[in-house]
Amino acid sequence: MYLMSKGLWGAIAGDETTSEAKEQQAHAAIVLNLSDSQLMHVIDSATAREAWGRLARFHHSHDMANRLWLKEKFASFKYAASSMSGHVMELEDLVMKMKRANCGPSEEDVCAVLLRSLPASFESLVQAFRMSVASFSFSDLVSKLIAEEVRQNEAARVEDATALYAGKRKGKQYPKKQQVRRAKGPSGTCYNCGKVGHYARDCRSGRGPREQQHDQSNVAFHASEGFASDSWVMDSGASAHMCKDRDAFEEYEEVHHARSISSAKSNVKLNVIGHGTVKLRVWTGHAWIDARLENTLHVQDLSKNLFSLTAAAARGMTVEITRNECVVKRGGTPVATGRKQGFLLYLNADYGTECHMAEDDTELWHRRLGHVSYGTLNATVKDGRIKGATMKTNVACDVCATSKQVRKSFKTSEEDAETRESSRSDVVVCSDVLGPITPASKSGFSYAVTFILMKSRYVTVYPLRKKSDVASAFERFYQDVKTTSGTKIKVLRSDNGGEYRNETMNSFCKAKFIKQEFTVPYNPEQNGMAERMNRTLVEMTRCMLKESGLDKSYWCEALMTAADIRNILPNASNKNSSPHEMVFKKVPRIDHMRVFGAQCYAHVAKEKRKKLDDSGVRCFFLGYEKDQKAYRLLNADDGSIVISRSVTFAEHSVTKASKSRDTQVFDVIEEDESVEASLTDDEDIPAPVTEEELRTPPLRAQNSSHHGPSV
């Protein structure tokens, strides 16, 4: 359905008129929406049609044994879920598997199995359907069952959070008769002790063996393809709203005592790690309005966020469920709507990818963007790339104050300004070497060379083990610029260092008809743009390392992250567009940015863990992986590098990656530390995009990362 809605189905159907662009879009849509376990089947597919065919062949089994097993499971289908929606979802999934195996049952058979599988509390409704002379469809039956479930939950609602049935409480508490009305078990069986002849509310056996040492509740937990994982399912079985994304919470408080929920999938227990308020934009049927979901539970392992219809009803709202939609009303006025997909209802909410943020998160974005100046941050807010932030000036930041302190620079003369302006073209590249930097990086690098396209200010940095590697780095830079942007470099401007004045560099420049321009000895001001860039780069790197508490040897990762940040933000010389936009003709996304060194949790693929091992590992954020839509992380346990796209961040609390922090993060030995750049202090120049292992091209399109609903 998603590919059809985007006009991409032709790539799957084999339509010869499908353009190459749509073929690539369809291929990307399939691959990027697969889980890690499914990705292995299509990772080397060349086309969308091939990827689709592989998935179809993997999931469609037509052998006799499979059909017999499906029929047996269908014939013995029983109610084992925590909510009616979860139960229906399991039945729907089973029916779909049978249809794919060419043994699909009729709608009448599905209705019969659903009625037979219901618990005793639905007996009166089951008898009404069986005695009815009027025909009814499966959708009619499901709608009635969900409505009946909502009615039963309202009648049996208790103080503790419940989902489908009452949550287990602490201690030997006996509910008052007027508070709880429990359904009668089979043949008058007590739900508490299992004996016949009395109800659970009158049971004298206390809580017995069912008593738990911590709070528990249950929720219908189900995954459904066709909607993004950040969508919200309207669930009648969950009495509390539940969200899996920590960043979606506007207000948040961690849970300090053990609490769990039970899913409809084999009674899997999921941990509740916090609660708070989530802000969404929802569609009422006539307009978009802001909605606050209070007392929302943070359940990290959910595959979908859950919008509780029971919680909405508890706040005085009414829920109307029809064949294809759901309407939530307050006093007769619609306040939210949902639409049906399969047998699930999805909340009509704003799942856009624009970067919204609360007013008090301006400082958070200052940290995410490598402690960039508030002038640059305000320009980003003003052009609409960050929604909801306030424009601030002169905000005191201790990290910036101690890591960016410099002498006041001289004013730029008119002659220097004219010379600089006339040379602003991407055919002119200025370069400088940074270092030696102590200590060496984890990969053994002690230097970094920078190359700046003077018109766009797009900066590329290569880490080096020794200065003599500058020539080979420039050769790679030249080829990549020519391939990526079509720009042919004509001038290379640098100082008189031996790394630029050598036979290898001279031979390459002559072969490519590149003119080398050198500064006058002891006058680095003539290469002011490169000098100023190095200063900006060092300041951002120093700030990020200081705040994160990471070891000094991670300067290379901080350097790369700082360069990525500056290339996607506007600057004083190009106020209306970023360097990335000028080079690649595309506005970069920033909603995937995170605070360097922030504590996070990366998902561990099931192929790399045992059944009872943790599915996540605690890490620290090191930057953005090159040429992949993934994050680069540091494993907090063993210090290894982790590459993952399934990551949960904890940015709101500053977590130090090491026990000690050095005020002087690292030392840079310059030939002349008294050099002042030819640019003024208040002029923002973007820092370079860097490469860590000299394995990837220096110029690359900024990876966009799809995020969930902005709140």
Automatic annotation (TrEMBL):
Residue stretches making up the CCHC-type domain: 190-205
UniProt GO BP: DNA integration; proteolysis
Keyword flag Zinc-finger: yes
Domain (Integrase catalytic) ranges: 421-587
Pfam families recorded: gag_pre-integrs (PF13976), Pol_BBD (PF22936), Retrotran_gag_2 (PF14223), rve (PF00665), SH3_retrovirus (PF25597), zf-CCHC (PF00098)
Statement: the UniProt record of this protein carries the keyword Hydrolase: yes
Record's signal peptide: none
UniProt feature, compositional bias: Acidic residues: 671-685
UniProt keyword terms in alphabetical order: Hydrolase, Metal-binding, Protease, Zinc, Zinc-finger
Region (Disordered): 671-711
An MF annotation (GO) of this entry: nucleic acid binding
Gene3D superfamilies reported for this sequence: Ribonuclease H-like superfamily/Ribonuclease H (3.30.420.10), Zinc finger, CCHC-type (4.10.60.10)
InterPro entries per record: GAG-pre-integrase_dom, Integrase_cat-core, PolX-like_BBD, Retrotran_Ty1/copia-like, RNaseH-like_sf, RNaseH_sf, SH3_retrovirus, Znf_CCHC
PROSITE patterns (UniProt xref): INTEGRASE (PS50994), ZF_CCHC (PS50158)
Biased amino acid composition, Polar residues: 701-711
PANTHER family: TRANSPOSASE, PUTATIVE-RELATED, TRANSPOSON-ENCODED PROTEIN WITH RIBONUCLEASE H-LIKE AND RETROVIRUS ZINC FINGER-LIKE DOMAINS
Protein name: Polyprotein
Annotated organism of origin: Peronospora matthiolae
